[in-house]
């Protein structure tokens, strides 16, 4: 990261210095491969809902079989 005194020399106001520091910090952050795109997230949520529906359906079937026996 760049020294604060250098950035305050480049930018006269504290507000500009603050924005500059935020930008520099964001460039130093590494990318995480676990981040999902919006589309990947939607697909995952749809699959989870379908799985829940199948699970609920199986439970209902088991209840019916248990009652009939």
Describe the structure.
The model has no long low-confidence stretch (mean pLDDT 75). The radius of gyration is 27 Å and the shape is rod-shaped. The chain has helices at residues 4-10, 14-28, 38-68. It is an all-alpha fold and 69 residues long. The chain folds into 2 domains: 1-30, no CATH class; 34-69. The protein contains 3 helices and no strands.
Outline:
It is built from 3 helices and no strands. The chain has helices at residues 4-10, 14-28, 38-68.
The number of helices is 3
Shape: rod-shaped
What percentage of the residues does DSSP assign to strands (E)? under 5%
How many domains is the backbone divided into?
2
**Order of helical and strand elements:** HHH
What's the rounded overall pLDDT mean?
75
Overall SS class? mainly alpha
Q: Using only CA atoms, what is the Rg?
A: 27 Å
| Helix content, binned percent | over 70%
Low-confidence stretches: none
Main sheet? none
What labels describe this entry?
69 residues, 3 helices, mainly alpha
């Amino acid at each position: 990261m760049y020294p604060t005194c250098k950035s305050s020399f480049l930018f006269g106001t504290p507000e500009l210095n603050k924005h500059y520091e935020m930008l520099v910090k964001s460039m130093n952050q590494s990318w995480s491969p676990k981040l999902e795109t919006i589309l990947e997230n939607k697909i995952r949520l749809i699959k989870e809902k379908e799985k829940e529906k199948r699970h609920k359906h199986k439970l209902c079937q088991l209840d019916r079989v248990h009652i009939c026996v």
